[in-house]
């Protein structure tokens, strides 16, 4: 299977917003209440807010294609750093998602390779992300890529205050 990773921009904002909502819902709805998911998707992760993110210069988006089908996406974010990095330049993987039917087919790995490539090309020393502590599949994936836990942060999903691990690796 050939996976193409293409840089995306404002022209793809609606596609990215729709894909963001679908992959987030498919990933987390089975583990959260219907009310919390609905509130989050309506108030924090709505289509308009997601489309606006695509136009933010600090964000870099990539779409993963198999043939003509969009099967995943990546959002990298510049400018946010952690005190634990001691000033080392870093890049955040803000989102990396694959359609459920494509999990295990190399899409996530292709997106991760792109993340590391972009970090190296822009002279970053670290790449980092936040992941829900209950998402064992994602945590195991990140560990296979050399990420290590260095802290935690809170994440509000609807009315449910959850904990995320913060993970990093050198590039």
List the helices and strands and how they pair.
Elements: E1 4-8, H1 13-28, H2 34-44, H3 47-55, E2 59-66, E3 69-77, E4 90-98, H4 107-121, E5 126-132, H5 136-144, E6 148-157, E7 160-170
Parallel strand pairs: 4-5
Antiparallel strand pairs: 1-2, 2-3, 3-4, 5-7, 6-7
Task: Pick out its properties.
171 residues; alpha+beta; Aminopeptidase; seven-stranded mixed sheet; 5 helices; globular
3D structure, described in words:
The protein starts with a strand and ends with a strand. The protein contains five helices and seven strands. It is globular and about 40 Å long. The chain has one domain (4-170): Gcn5-related N-acetyltransferase (GNAT) (Aminopeptidase), CATH 3.40.630.30. 35% of the residues lie in helices and 35% in strands. It has a seven-stranded mixed β-sheet with strand order 1-2-3-4-5-7-6, sandwiched between helices. α1 (13-28) packs across α3. The mean pLDDT is 95. It is an alpha+beta fold and 171 residues long. The chain has helices at 13-28, 34-44, 47-55, 107-121, 136-144, and strands spanning 4-8, 59-66, 69-77, 90-98, 126-132, 148-157, 160-170.
């Amino acid at each position: 299977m050939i996976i193409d990773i293409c840089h995306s921009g404002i022209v793809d904002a609606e596609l990215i917003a729709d894909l963001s909502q679908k992959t987030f819902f498919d990933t987390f709805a089975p583990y959260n209440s219907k009310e919390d998911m609905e509130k989050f998707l309506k108030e924090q992760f709505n289509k308009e807010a997601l489309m606006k993110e695509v136009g933010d210069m600090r964000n870099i988006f990539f779409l993963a294609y198999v043939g003509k089908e969009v099967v995943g996406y990546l959002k990298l974010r510049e400018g946010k750093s952690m005190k634990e990095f001691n000033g080392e330049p870093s890049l955040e993987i803000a989102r990396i998602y694959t359609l459920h039917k494509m999990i295990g087919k190399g899409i996530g790995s292709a997106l991760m390779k792109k993340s590391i490539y972009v970090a190296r090309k822009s002279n970053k020393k670290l790449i980092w992300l936040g992941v829900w502590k209950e998402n064992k599949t994602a945590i195991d994936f990140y560990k296979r890529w050399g990420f290590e836990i260095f802290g935690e942060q809170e994440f509000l999903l609807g009315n449910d205050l959850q904990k995320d691990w913060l993970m990093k690796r050198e590039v």
